[in-house]
């Protein structure tokens, strides 16, 4: 509320300034926005915030297609007159994302050549840990080269593992998806266990942190959720796990399990290690759900079912959190405001002011403090195989509210823009 | 519309009859309802229809917990005064389901003993192929024993494979879930393919029929959906499949694949055969998504992601089809009306009157014509690896409309009733 009021006054003053300046024939500077890393169901709401705020402040706004990968090919889209309403309800990266890390000097050289040529003076990069590293390098290089450039990072990750911010845009919606899916699957299991499946396993994203897997327990606030949550923060003990499942089965007859893809043995080996590396040399993870179910089936003799929502959990815009969408948009707006206030080389953050009523304030942190860092689930957010009241207090406000996309033909009317040839 | 009008007149007459009868001190007969087989997100809407209609018609209505499994233990719940509103928005089997087939005579003997003792005169069994077989056997045995019993089947299956009905309650909602999930995952893939995942594979339920897998193509009506659909109806040809994927990749850079769990090689072997049998001696299926992704990765060298929604697709009430929910409820009501009209030993069916506007009429078919039959996807509903306009015409009305459950704490407020000890 307070933020909104502040924002409105701020806008009005700026718009007056712009009108004045335009009348005096002043040419405004160009801003560049791009998306990077694994996408979310609300990253486009941040794009909406950046673009709308930039336009309101008289900036010319370009969008780089596929993050720095497209920027290095000068693959831009002029968003000055783009109809951007669809960004508020379309999931995934409307402008394409990338996994590129600019590792070599020639990439950096090329980037600044393109920035100079296009007179880019603001750069808004929307991503997670790796992307903030890229943003930080670009800011540092600009200073080194004496090129006037203001870089502001817009946070984004379903993994919720960025430090120095209470939470990340994208997390609330993915957590809501996971919580609801686990409720529905557990109800299904409860219907079937008497003479069919007794154990259901859902494999959940989140890389090295258990924020998302923990969300599988949130349904208990309404009466049903995961009975066992296997977090990467708690080294996997097979015997203890199996005896826990056994105990639950003997008590209630069925057991719903959430397992984080990043689950590790005490020696650091991934439980999900598929036993081979991909073409880039990374160990392929996946199938931890089947590994866990296999243990339960072979050692306890119980019938199992396994779900792996994969991309569905990170792009499930149809059941996104309203709070998350609004915050994602606001993070985009704040990035523009900070840059205009000469607060750059930073990422937008959210600080929690209070839980009841839920209130946050926007702030910022130097990019280098975020780059390549991982925030794990705090120890007081879980206990044994379940989550604590502290986690409920933390997470419930983030999944609050629904903001359904418009529907047409019984399906969401998501919009696609042409991203050009690959 | 016409049906509704008919229904209203019918009700009024019946209610008058009941009031009259009650005043005369006539005791009404008992009806028993139970759920069976794999559950759906709308099976409880059918329960709502049966219970509400039975009560309106003065029947005493009992519910069997866990289908015939619970009935054989006399595990009943008196639904005469139960608050049933939650059945309209809570997924899975609110009263528990079962997979039991009554194979031996002692089960049948026991069943009729319990029916007699409780004076059950109407039996409404809500399930798929196997359950209709059970219902048929019970009806036949009743006649053989001279026990007055009216059995009516209420159709239910996400697989949509029951014959003699245009479609089955449960299918529309699961199809909607699949269609939306594939749209969202394909948008995600489209964001990432430039330097990350190029092929996404979603494994879809449906046993031997491709009705549900076909739904992964429906998103194209709004611009994005599955590029390749692997149906059980089309024997799997690995070389042809891989060259199709390769062609799509070279054209657009990414490829979203839907694969039915029941996909078979030309010799009839399941592509998903996991190589072992479960404790009941059934071959365990599963992981066909990983099998397909493995082929793409190893033979085409492309990075893949795999999703297996499993139970999520059949209990995803949060995004169920309004049309499906309304029809599920109506199928329940019609079962009661048919029984009261002395039309028994049948299953309720739906006939499509027209597509534009979409209109169905309710009818019935003898149970023995449904039992253990499977309706496959018609040949003119698919072509190569995609679905045809005819399939769109058929399926789009079934996924039409949204009927969101109520939310509390950011999550659906599904309700659970006590099902007793296991």
TrEMBL record, chains A, B:
TM helices/strands, residue ranges: none
Pfam families: PFK
Site note Important for catalytic activity, residues: 156
Site (Important for catalytic activity and substrate specificity): 130
Binding residues for substrate: 157-159, 205-207, 261, 311-314
Coiled-coil features, chain-numbered ranges: none
Keyword Cytoplasm among record annotations: yes
Single Gene Ontology BP annotation: fructose 6-phosphate metabolic process
Highest taxon of the lineage: Bacteria
Major subcellular location class: cytoplasm
Binding site for diphosphate: 38
Keywords assigned: Cytoplasm, Glycolysis, Kinase, Magnesium, Metal-binding, Transferase
Active site positions, chain numbering: 159 (proton acceptor)
Family indicated by similarity: Belongs to the phosphofructokinase type A (PFKA) family. PPi-dependent PFK group II subfamily. Clade 'B2' sub-subfamily.
Function of the protein: Catalyzes the phosphorylation of D-fructose 6-phosphate, the first committing step of glycolysis. Uses inorganic phosphate (PPi) as phosphoryl donor instead of ATP like common ATP-dependent phosphofructokinases (ATP-PFKs), which renders the reaction reversible, and can thus function both in glycolysis and gluconeogenesis. Consistently, PPi-PFK can replace the enzymes of both the forward (ATP-PFK) and reverse (fructose-bisphosphatase (FBPase)) reactions.
Protein name from the UniProt record: Pyrophosphate--fructose 6-phosphate 1-phosphotransferase
